[in-house]
Amino acid sequence: MSRIAARFETLREQGRTALIPFVTAGDPAPEVTVPLMHAMVAAGADLIELGVPFSDPIADGPVIQRATERALALGVSLDDVLEMVRRFRLEDQATPVILMGYLNPIEVMGYTDFAHAAHAVGLDGALIVDVPPEEGHDLVAALKSQGLDLVYLLAPTSTAARISRIGAVATGFVYYVSVKGVTGSGQLDTAAVAEQVAIIKSLVSLPVGVGFGIGSPEAAAQVAKVADAVIVGSAIVRRIEAMAATPEHIPGAIATFLGSLRHAIDEVDAHVT
Ligand SMILES: O=P(O)(O)OC[C@@H](O)[C@@H](O)c1c[nH]c2ccccc12
């Protein structure tokens, strides 16, 4: 069983919803990321989504785009991100880590080399935004041969046929994008999310994570009622940006914010069976 599957299995047994923070690797400085990852775990993160900086992040809104630019300006590469995962793993063998990124840097490294390096550093999976399930067979084969999970996105516009097709290729969990548009945008419509998650759950046996537009304990609690995982990106990255001049404060402040999300989710879990 993969580390991601095992983590969701444990959470399911405990009746708990996962909290998945997203941060851009190397933002606002490369040396912040690993301590920040440990601080997020201590504050209740169940899995970490690490963004690989890329020059053309089509799915990202302004907040994460700026984080990407900060990291790219410091020269943070895919190799550097894998090195961060390796260093995180030296002290934490339990918390799954996935990379969020775009195909180009992986293509440049080479699919086989990436898959082997990812496995060697203790990465658990990847969400490659611009590789739809009907493409990238060589990449998928390379990653699966190294035991890495492949997370795919589902959108409000996904048809039942599309959901089933993604359910057949995805491993680990599926990621339901709660709003149309880019990261950090949109108004969360919790009733619509509940409806769509129920449809996904009837078609896909994997856990369902929900992300996009969740930025407060209240929103996290609403989503925790229906999803297996609550994914939060821009609200964290915005706080990191505000502290870019005092990076030593970042792990503690983000831990405090995540603690408030964790608490709100735990309250819901205690009441929902
Ligand atoms: O930023 P938001 O609205 O909290 O959404 C999560 C999101 O940031 C994170 O999962 C993510 C960052 N970049 C992405 C690109 C595609 C899908 C998901 C992502």
Automatic annotation (TrEMBL):
Enzyme Commission number(s) from the entry: 4.2.1.20
Protein keywords: Amino-acid biosynthesis, Aromatic amino acid biosynthesis, Lyase, Tryptophan biosynthesis
Record keyword Transferase present: no
Residues of the active site: 49 (proton acceptor), 60 (proton acceptor)
Top-level enzyme category: lyase
CDD domains (alphabetical): Tryptophan_synthase_alpha
Signal peptide positions on this chain: none
HAMAP family reported in the protein's UniProt record: Trp_synth_alpha
Protein known as: Tryptophan synthase alpha chain
Organism this protein belongs to: Thiocapsa imhoffii
